[in-house]
Amino acid sequence: MELYNYDILSQLVGEDVLLKDGQDQIVVLEVAEVNKGKLDGDEWEAFSVILNGKKEYSLPQGIFTLSHEKFGDVSLFLSPNSETEYETVVTRKR
């Protein structure tokens, strides 16, 4: 999880990440935005990641495994913002 951070994710805008759903299907999502959160500072790391998918495969909210060679495999809670847009939010003590 430590490699899934703002610095690495902000370099991946426009790149694809792989998501494994509950039935072991692989879904490709594009990193669209990486935004610092209000709590981000010396004590806390806070950021959100907006991911874009395709209409053909709609995901419910839940915990999924995301994969990319830069951060490895990480399980995160994913929320849909629309039919094709998803978001993860990370807030953790540094």
Helix content: under 10%
Order of helices and strands: HEEEEEE
What form results from the Cα inertia axes?
A: globular
Strand content: over 45%
Blueprint of the fold:
Blueprint: H1 6-10, E1 16-20, E2 26-36, E3 44-52, E4 62-68, E5 72-80, E6 85-93
Antiparallel strand pairs: 1-2, 1-4, 2-3, 3-6, 4-5, 5-6
Please give a handful of descriptors for the protein shown.
94 residues, six-stranded antiparallel barrel, globular, mainly beta
Characterization of this structure:
This protein has 94 residues and is mainly beta. It has one domain (6-93). It is built from one helix and six strands. A six-stranded antiparallel barrel has the order 1-2-3-6-5-4. The model has no long low-confidence stretch (mean pLDDT 94).
Quick overview:
This protein is mostly beta strands and 94 residues long. The protein is built from 1 helix and 6 strands, in the order αββββββ.
